[in-house]
Amino acid sequence: MLSFRIVRIMGIPIELHITFILLLILVYYFWGLDGLILYIFLFLSVVIHELAHSYVAKKYGVHIEKILLLPIGGMAMMDRIPREGELKIAIAGPVVSILLGIVLILLSNFIEAPVLHIEGIDYPLLTTVGILNIILGVFNLFPAFPMDGGRILRALLASKMSYLKATRIASIIGQFLSFILLLLGILSLNVILILIALFIYYGASKEYHVLVTEDVFSKIKVKDIMTTKIVAVSPQDTVKDLMDTMFKYRYMGYPVVEKGKLVGSVSFNDITHVSEKVLVRDIMKPPVTVSEDKTLKDVIPGLETSDRVYVLDKNRRLKGIISKTDVLRILKILEFRKDS
Ligand SMILES: [Zn+2]
């Protein structure tokens, strides 16, 4: 995604997506400077909302990669959301938005703030931004994923039942509510409402599926699915030797092992443009590894950057290999076995 880093707050980079910048130009074109100012204040409010989530998340040791600003809103990209902190993390955003809104509206009674003129209508800056913050907070409390309200609902349910069941119920409630929203949108011919309803409906059903997959993956042990038939090559081998090995075994990638230690990984893609005399050690890549007591869930991030992940034992000796193809086959079998 094309985005520009503009500033760092609490150690979190804030990035503007290119479509957001294009929208700024459009807003300026249609609503002039005053429209642009109001729009910027709205997005400052979104940043504050996301920072509120991030602030609490950091207390739970969550790493926040960045806050990305898109034309439709902001997104704090967290590496994970801890179950024990979900309620507080989710509720922080709406609470801060609503409080900020109330404070701004109260302040407008005491401070002479500028008035913006957009399309012939007067918008007192403080009051307008205050109202927008309250709308932002309340809108996010809508109890459906991916809104904060969906997470709050799930966290509340999860205190009474399993996390998976809580997610399923929260997901069904979210789909039902977004369906009602969709009906309202269609009856009132409100395109924006229809789009929001579809967005929430999609998010509500996706959340449950992601969790089911994670749940299944975390029950599959790496050592139960890895290939233990290992054909390794040496860093001293030439590309010609490697091609002979490939011809014989027909695997597309090989671990590079020296004195019993895994030192690299080499695949068919690495040899397509090099001479036959080049040595494996000059073209091999650093291996992506996982420990043998881990689960399939831990393998997935590695497979995003590499076609195969090497499984090591406690002494860091190579015990097996898991490739993308292996995982796809397992998914097919799981799909077939799924009882629901
Ligand atoms: Zn939020």
Automatic annotation (TrEMBL):
Domain of life: Archaea
Pfam families linked: CBS, Peptidase_M50
Compartments reported by the entry: Cell membrane
GO cellular component, one term: plasma membrane
Residue numbers annotated as active site: E50
Occurrences of domain CBS (ranges): 226-283
UniProt keyword annotations, A-Z: CBS domain, Cell membrane, Hydrolase, Membrane, Metal-binding, Metalloprotease, Protease, Repeat, Transmembrane, Transmembrane helix, Zinc
CDD domains in alphabetical order: S2P-M50_SpoIVFB_CBS (cd06164)
BP terms from Gene Ontology: proteolysis
Cofactor note text: Binds 1 zinc ion per subunit.
Bilayer disposition of the protein: Multi-pass membrane protein
Entry keyword DNA damage: no
One Gene Ontology MF term: metal ion binding
Cofactor dependence: Zn(2+)
Residues involved in Zn(2+) binding: H49, H53, D148
PROSITE patterns in the record: CBS
Transmembrane portions of the chain: 12-31, 37-56, 87-111, 123-145, 169-202
KW Secreted (keyword) present: no
PANTHER family named in the record: MEMBRANE-ASSOCIATED ZINC METALLOPROTEASE M50B, STAGE IV SPORULATION PROTEIN FB
Family: Belongs to the peptidase M50B family.
Protein name as annotated: Zinc metalloprotease
Organism, scientific name: Methanothermococcus okinawensis
